[in-house]
Amino acid sequence: MDFRNPLPQRLRDGLNLTIITVHAAGEVGDVIIGGVSDPPNCKSMFEKMQHFWKYNDNIRNLILQEPRGRASMCTNLVLPPCDSRADAGFLIMESDEWVPMSGSNTICTTTVLLEMGMIEMKEPTTKVSLDTAAGLVTVTAECEGGKCKSVAFDNVPSFVWELDCPIEVPGLGTVKVDVAWGGMIYVLVDAESAGMEISSVNGANLVKVGEMIKRAAQAQIMPVHPENAEIKGVSNFVWMGKPEVIGEEIRAYNAVVVSPGRLDRSPCGTGTCARMTVMHARGQLKVDQVLRHVSPIGTEFPSHIRGLTKVGKYDAVLPTVKGSAWITGFKQVVLDPQDPFPEGFRVGDAWHLGDRK
Ligand SMILES: O=C(O)[C@H]1NCC[C@@H]1O
């Protein structure tokens, strides 16, 4: 056997992605660090995201769908930033969409950028500015011995469109939902009042009922971001667990149903921001008070509101979310030109197929 040149020529010639595999609080947010060209003539990361949606969405399908991907994972693409203040730019791929912002993915990407030496790590604290499709996000990483121990990101302002908005859900009746922006657009429902228990063993039911409510909300309401009319429509769903006051802090479980229907393994950074703005609007969370948001697998994002602002006509909060990520591997992904599934596939045993055939 000759191992000197193990990769056949036809695989070396085609798509060849260098990926660092990583998870934050259990949620996979792999990071592509090589093999994808920067789209030309884009003035913002939002324009780069639109470019991929329009011309290169096949890469998202290839990476996230089977056989290379799976339902419960995301992938990030590191690119040069457009904002001159930023150290790096990145775009976020989820199963059903490119999303403007994501918490677990910001934590994964920052950890990879620092631990792989793509941005210089300074101990004990490294400040990083990341250009995202939702805007500039500043990150403070606690670092020690070459490890990025934690990542706290100052998210874009979050605000509420609706509190207690009645939605007619076929099979369930009227359900009251909150609608908020946390870097993605969320519908949020109090789990206890809907008779839902947040636990991993109840995962299938949380997904099934959450998807029913989310799809009904998508059909009945159309929130539009006041500063970017192209960001519109509900993306994900949050089950809000009962808040428990512990000293000065609040601890609460949550379960986020990520489209097309699976639970976020992490406490969901953008969902946490959406929830904090809802809790603040209801007088349940004060500025600087910690919300320790807990995922169905028990991982935590300690978070807080660092100040108040306005987004268009809406009162908004400035949310900060903290978590940790761990690199799990390194891989090269290729596409054989003869592969019958150049964009992968989904099977109903593991995927909510939704409207797909
Ligand atoms: O942390 C978050 O914001 C997310 N986790 C996966 C789905 C959401 O983007």
Keywords, separated by commas or semicolons:
41% strand, 357 residues, alpha+beta, Diaminopimelate Epimerase, Chain A, domain 1, 2 domains
In terms of topology, how is this protein built?
Blueprint: H1 9-13, E1 16-24, E2 27-34, H2 45-55, H3 57-64, E3 74-79, E4 88-93, E5 98-99, H4 103-115, E6 125-132, E7 135-144, E8 147-154, E9 158-169, E10 173-181, E11 185-190, H5 203-220, E12 224-225, E13 228-232, E14 236-240, E15 244-246, E16 249-258, E17 262-263, H6 269-281, E18 291-294, E19 300-311, E20 314-323, E21 325-334
Parallel strand pairs: 2-3, 4-6, 11-14, 16-18
Antiparallel strand pairs: 1-2, 1-21, 3-4, 4-5, 6-7, 7-8, 8-20, 9-10, 9-20, 10-11, 12-13, 14-16, 15-16, 16-17, 18-19, 19-20
Q: From the coordinates shown, what is the CATH architecture of the largest domain? A: Roll
Shape assignment: globular
Which cofactors or ions or other ligands sit in this model?
Answer: 3-hydroxyproline
| Average pLDDT rating | 96
Amount of helix: 10-25%
| First and last CA, distance | 44 Å
Helix tally?
A: 6
Question: Are there runs of 5+ residues with pLDDT below 50, and where?
Answer: none
- In CATH, what is the class of the largest domain? Alpha Beta
By CATH, the superfamily of the largest domain comes out as: Diaminopimelate Epimerase, Chain A, domain 1
- For the largest beta sheet, what order do the strands appear in spatially? 9-10-11-14-16-18-19-20
The main sheet comes to:
8 strands, mixed, barrel
The CATH topology of the largest domain is Diaminopimelate Epimerase, Chain A, domain 1
Number of domains: 2
Strand content: 35-45%
Order of helices and strands: HEEHHEEEHEEEEEEHEEEEEEHEEEE
Family: Belongs to the proline racemase family.
Protein name: Proline racemase
GO molecular function, one term: 4-hydroxyproline epimerase activity
Active site: 102, 268
